[in-house]
Amino acid sequence: MKKILVTGANAGIGYALTKRLILEKGAFVYLGSRNAERGEMAVKKLIDENPEAGGKVEMLNIDVTSEESVAAAAESLKTKGVILYALVNNAGVGLAHEGVTPDDVLATNYHGVHRVSAAFKSLVDPDGRIINTSSGVASSFLKTQTEEMKKFFSNPDLT
């Protein structure tokens, strides 16, 4: 059974993806949630609505904006000997959310993806995948940039 970590999986697209991976693909999913209570509620809801998901989902407490949280989450899977088929960087935030600042967006959507990918890279099977989700806002932003900035942000060697 393929094991997959989905960050930001307690709601929205992450929750829907988790559900589909379990029910349609037969995967075991680590449901990543920065809030443990909401994560456990999402697991309970998923299993209550889909009993066949029982034993195929586990909540993983992970706040992508926190080095300590990400390191602890990675260590918890490493200690269990988990090898991931895929890591889905789905956790994200936008300025439309109340109280969110541009710094919050950068901390989550940019640094969070890098932080999680770096921490879990050694746990992803060599034939596995790291998948990054994004909204249409990223491409809309890029369209408004100069040719020089488009080239910079589209460089496959950018680290």
Please give a structural write-up.
The protein is α/β, with parallel strands linked by helices and 159 residues long. 47% of the residues lie in helices and 19% in strands. The protein contains six helices and five strands; from the N terminus they run E-H-E-H-E-H-E-H-E-H-H. Strands 3-2-1-4-5 form a five-stranded parallel sheet, sandwiched between helices. The longest helix is centred in the last third of the chain and has 19 residues. The radius of gyration is 16 Å and the shape is globular. The two termini are 32 Å apart. The model has no long low-confidence stretch (mean pLDDT 93).
Notable traits:
19% strand; 6 helices; 159 residues; alpha/beta; globular; five-stranded parallel β-sheet
Largest sheet: 5 strands, parallel
Helix percent band: 40-55%
Number of strands: 5
Low-confidence stretches: none
Structural class of the secondary structure composition? alpha/beta
Oligomer: single chain
Shape: globular
The secondary-structure element order is EHEHEHEHEHH
Strands across the major sheet, in which order?
Answer: 3-2-1-4-5
Q: Number of helical segments?
A: 6
Can you summarize this structure?
30% of the residues are buried.
